[in-house]
Design goal:
With 416 residues, this protein is α/β, with parallel strands linked by helices. The chain has two domains: 2-106, no CATH class; 118-413, TIM Barrel (Alpha-Beta Barrel), CATH 3.20.20. The protein has 16 helices and ten strands. The protein has helices at 2-14, 61-69, 89-95, 99-102, 118-125, 143-153, 174-183, 199-211, 242-250, 253-260, 277-290, 303-314, 334-342, 350-356, 362-378, 393-413, and strands at residues 75-76, 105-106, 129-135, 159-163, 187-193, 216-220, 265-270, 294-299, 324-331, 383-389. An eight-stranded parallel β-barrel has the order 3-4-5-6-7-8-9-10, surrounded by seven helices. It has a two-stranded antiparallel sheet with strand order 1-2. Bound molecules: iron/sulfur cluster.
């Protein structure tokens, strides 16, 4: 009865989605559950010109909230309790059932608990790092491909990101792929998406990875699942967002250290091209306060924009260690280039489009990637993350062979 009355009032007034743990008072009366992903700590990194990455003809709900309230960067809303969906939030308020998930929770400062990985040590020492991304194969037989790639690149990279269900396409888990990486003496950066699991399942997986010695992690909200209708309802909401994942692991760092002798190095994603830029910067500060120690960016196709974004990010923190690794796309096929152009939140600069118009574009695309890498390095990048978009193995190898020396020269030239 109370639920029905609440629906009658809050439906037309706020487009209420009946989560039963109402946070309207923290979002200046804009219902965040109208985000297709159901983010309670938005926006995601896919907003361009304030539009939603899932339903591009709509404004991103979180842009409207942010412009009206300013983000409290030291709190986080926990994942909503599914048990409370379609129940009366007024009742839950008075019984206290919604307390944990309704009220913003303070983040935990565990900055004094030092991460234990080699990657973390190198980055805190200010050494230039090189990482590479390898998508997990769909089946076990695909691990041979990972094996072959690792045999070629093991000596050139500081760590390899392993993904799960990249782009929403089902695959082996990132932990399985990370095992192949580790067999070559290289550290992994294991990626997890909030889209794929509940908090309990997520923490179990992280614990499993830590228990077998993995130390670097990257937590992302995740992209929309392909072939899934673009809509807003309780079925489409992701179980967790990146901020909630970072917070959940960060608050357990002392326990990981005491139980496993490992302190996970927590990473997050960031997008310098998401607009407006100040929201993207603020969002990364939120993640930093929640426990993210390093970030890897969305594909960078224009070094000047990166420089402006990074300058904003570092304002007032110029003396702190540099912990941002921009991603540089290695584009070696037209089909893969089309995929890059379709990725949510990715800006593709005309300079890359021009290269892709050449009849023989692979070597020029590699030279373009070197230029971008040197540009971001001159502007404070901690390293470079190579993202492969169809580049043949010998050219990937050529990139990895040269990039460190080029970056060191670029740093020296910029007086860094
Ligand atoms: S999916 Fe991303 S862009 Fe769309 S409303 Fe949610 S936070 Fe905003």
């Amino acid at each position: 009865m109370i639920f029905e009355i609440e629906k009658l009032i809050k439906g037309p007034l706020f487009n209420c989605q009946n989560c039963g743990q109402c946070i309207l008072t923290h979002t200046r009366l804009i219902c965040p559950m109208n985000c297709p992903k159901g983010l309670r700590n938005g926006p995601c990194g896919g907003t361009l010109d304030g539009k939603c990455e899932v339903i591009p003809d709509r404004d991103c709900v979180w842009m409207r909230i942010d412009t009206r309230r300013g983000i409290d960067s030291k709190t986080v809303h926990l994942p909503p309790d599914k048990e409370l969906f379609d129940t009366a939030s007024y009742v839950n308020f008075f019984t206290g059932r919604d307390r944990e998930t309704r009220l913003p929770q303070p983040v935990v400062d565990n900055g004094h608990v030092a991460a234990t990985s080699r990657l973390a040590e190198k980055m805190y020492r200010g050494e230039f790092v090189v990482t590479l991304e390898i998508a997990s194969p769909r089946t076990k037989s695909g691990l041979d491909r990972v094996e072959r790639t690792m045999s070629r690149v093991a000596g050139q990279v500081d760590a390899v990101n392993t993904t799960t269900n990249a782009g929403g396409v089902p695959s082996l888990s990132s932990i399985e792929t990370a095992e192949v990486v580790r067999n070559h003496g290289v550290e992994s950066v294991i990626q997890f998406c909030g889209r794929d699991q509940t908090e309990e399942q997520f923490l179990d997986e992280v614990d499993q990875a830590v228990s077998i010695g993995h130390q670097n992690f990257l937590f992302l909200t995740g992209d929309w699942l392909p072939d899934t209708a673009r809509a807003v309802n309780q079925e489409t909401w992701f179980p967790m967002d990146s901020l909630q994942m970072i917070h959940a692991v960060n608050r357990q760092l002392p326990q990981y250290r005491d139980r496993r002798g490992i302190v996970p190095f927590i990473g997050c994603a960031s997008n310098p091209f998401s607009t407006p830029m100040e929201v993207s910067v603020q969002r990364l500060h939120n993640k930093r306060h929640a426990g993210a120690r390093f970030s890897q960016t969305q594909a960078i196709t224009n070094a000047e924009t990166y420089a402006r974004w990074y300058g904003e990010l570092r304002r007032g923190r110029e003396q702190e260690p540099r912990l941002t690794i921009p991603s540089v796309p290695l584009v070696g096929s037209r089909r893969a280039f089309e995929i890059l152009c379709r990725l949510p939140g990715v800006y593709v600069d005309p300079s890359l489009r021009k290269v892709m118009e050449l009849s023989d574009f692979q070597r020029p695309a590699l030279d373009w990637a070197f230029e971008i890498s040197e540009g971001v390095t001159r502007n404070g990048a901690a390293g470079v993350h190579a993202m492969n978009f169809g580049m043949p193995p010998d050219l990937i190898r050529a990139f990895l062979d040269e990039i460190r020396d080029r970056a060191i020269t670029a740093r020296t030239g910029a007086g860094l």
